[in-house]
Design goal:
alpha+beta; six-stranded antiparallel sheet; 24% helix; 26% strand
Length: 568
């Protein structure tokens, strides 16, 4: 069996070798294919997991999971790998996982952004938001601070330098820490904090960060409400302009059986849901009810709260983000999509009552003390470095130290990694088993004068309707159930042909509507309620000639049912 790697972060070649090993070890469950190439020419791998010998992967309802769209968010890759390992190792042992792989499909992309991840996993890391491709311009910024490891310890920390107009002061409660200077505070020793690094063309007075050439944000490059650079930084020159996002979008559109999607990011320890640019009141009520119910289940299974992008995770109260994956999956594909932000150092430190984005803008100094204690007790002090004098070639005497952000904040430290991600698979399995699924409900064959009378019915045995979301039905994002009858060896699509003589009554093809599940059924159970058979598609045929016939019912999301009959 492939050796799972959940105690460190894998470089690209090792990740590829591991995926090949899973495909080799579990040929009845796992297939591996390329969906495209990255900017630097690395293969973007898609793992398809389903039981072979049942139905093709494309004929089963599916769940999509991807990770590491942002360069330094490497724990997202590990989260998807953990899902792969869990379902393959527990197939045949766990009833839900076995049922999932026998009746559904998983599409897994552990690393959507292999180039950026390679940079992030160097030592010291090269941190960019997404792609290594220069954008919007390819020239270097001639000025500003370039972040660098100056003291050779393999880390990029902070520098503090004394400045009467500095916004920071040494903490009275915990002298190792810096605290924010109060509005009315004066007369003390104050510091300016800047990242560890060197200035380009330093004029000895002004300080700013150097703009890096790699300015893309892949999670602004999806088609839903995409906006250009002047309106939203990093969105790219046009929707899906980047090969990684174009590969992702094409792979999903080529797989219309996808009914739910998860994309893994870092960090905050939350599950985010659409919409991002308008309030919940603009959603179909039926979709909001289900989003909330699924979110409660996600919290129960993973411990992460499930919240609204628009209402609880804005970077600024007057601004919204667009062109993001989960909005695109819901608005253009019509399926339930979630963005999981892995890891909350605040929660690890016992800080539970905080607002995710707002905490970074302003929080009590007591929270920093709790985080420092957590670093001391759980990270052997590696999450925070004591301030150490350093002779900077441009600034003179400074001190290097502070939070080791890359170790403790951006991703879980490796000793916490598996515990942090191990329950994500439970929610994926739950959402997969909630998807719609076509099954045969009724087949009767009655000999009559002049042939046979056939009654055939299929029904949706899944919790969700075949359309998955109300929005998908309203926007006609997927076709209803299609029922067909064929006689073996005969084509009936040629122009100019008459209705075949073997079919006395009934239609060769019937396009039914969407089929309900039971997600809409209320929990009251009081008298007067009825669960109508709006989950059933029903056809009748009068067959006039003996032979072999094939009945097929298909829905791009709910799968395919095929029944063969022989009349003699």
């Amino acid at each position: 069996m492939p050796t799972p790697v959940f105690d460190r972060y894998l470089r690209y070649d090792e990740l590829t070798a591991l995926l090949l090993a899973y495909a080799s070890e579990f040929p009845e469950l796992v297939t591996l294919e390329s969906i495209g190439q990255s900017h630097e020419g690395r293969t973007i791998w898609l793992v398809t997991v389903t039981l072979a010998g049942t139905k093709p992967a494309s004929d089963k309802p599916a769940v999509w999971c991807d990770g590491n769209i942002h360069a330094s968010e490497v724990s997202a890759s590990t989260a998807v790998l953990h899902i792969l390992h869990t379902v393959t190792s527990k197939y045949g042992k766990d009833a839900d996982i076995s049922r999932l792989l026998e009746t559904r499909t998983l599409y897994l992309v552990p690393r959507l952004n292999p180039d950026g991840a390679e940079w992030a996993l160097e030592s010291p890391p090269r941190i960019v938001r997404s792609s290594t491709r220069p954008y919007p311009f390819d020239e270097l910024d001639p000025e500003g601070l370039e972040q660098k490891d100056l003291d050779g310890d393999g880390r990029i920390l902070s520098m503090r330098l004394r400045d009467t107009n500095g916004a920071w002061v040494q903490s009275e409660v915990e002298p190792r820490l810096m605290r924010k200077r109060r509005p009315d505070e004066s007369g003390g020793t104050y510091y300016r904090l800047i990242p560890e690094g060197l200035f380009h063309n330093y004029d000895s007075v002004t300080m700013r960060g150097q703009k890096i050439p790699q300015g893309l944000d892949f999670n602004r490059n999806f088609p839903s409400a995409w906006r250009p650079e002047a309106e939203q930084y990093g969105a790219g020159p046009y929707p899906t302009s980047e090969p990684e996002i174009r590969a992702c979008v094409q792979a999903i559109c080529d797989r219309p059986n996808i009914c739910a999607a998860f994309t893994y990011h870092t960090f905050s320890g939350v599950h985010l849901r659409p919409p991002s640019r308008y309030p919940d009141t603009d959603l179909p009520a039926e979709d909001l009810w289900l989003y909330n119910a699924f979110g409660e289940k996600g919290t129960e299974l993973t411990g992460y709260p499930a919240i609204s992008n628009y209402h609880e995770f804005k970077y600024h109260p007057k601004e919204v983000i667009t062109g993001v994956f989960d909005d695109w999956m819901y608005e253009h594909r019509g399926v339930f999509a979630w963005t999981t932000e892995i890891w909350s150092p605040q929660r690890q430190a016992g800080i539970t009552d905080y607002k995710y984005i707002e905490w970074f803008r302003d929080h009590p100094h007591e929270d920093d003390i709790k985080l420092l204690q957590w670093s001391d007790n759980k990270l052997d002090g590696k999450g925070y470095a004591d301030w150490t004098p350093f002779d900077h070639p441009q600034l003179g005497p400074v001190e290097i130290g502070g939070w080791n952000h890359h170790l403790a904040f951006r991703n879980p430290p490796t000793q916490f990694l598996e515990a942090e991600i191990e329950h994500f698979v439970d929610w994926v399995v739950y959402m997969g088993l909630a998807s719609p699924q076509l099954e045969e409900r009724l087949l009767t064959i009655l000999p009559i004068a002049g042939g046979w009378h056939i009654k055939w019915a299929v029904h949706n045995t899944g919790y969700l309707p075949t359309n998955v979301t109300k929005l998908a039905a309203e926007k006609k994002l997927c076709r209803g159930v299609v029922l067909e009858i064929r006689r073996d060896g005969e084509a009936w699509t040629e122009a100019g042909t008459n209705k075949p003589a073997w079919l006395s009554a009934g239609k060769l093809r019937t396009v039914a509507g969407q089929l309900a599940g039971w997600s809409h059924v209320t929990s009251s159970g009081f008298g007067g309620t009825i669960q109508a058979t709006d989950d059933v598609a029903y056809v009748e045929y009068h067959i006039a000639q003996p032979g072999k016939y094939t009945l097929t019912a298909s829905h791009e999301r709910a799968g395919t049912v095929t029944t063969e009959i022989e009349l003699a």
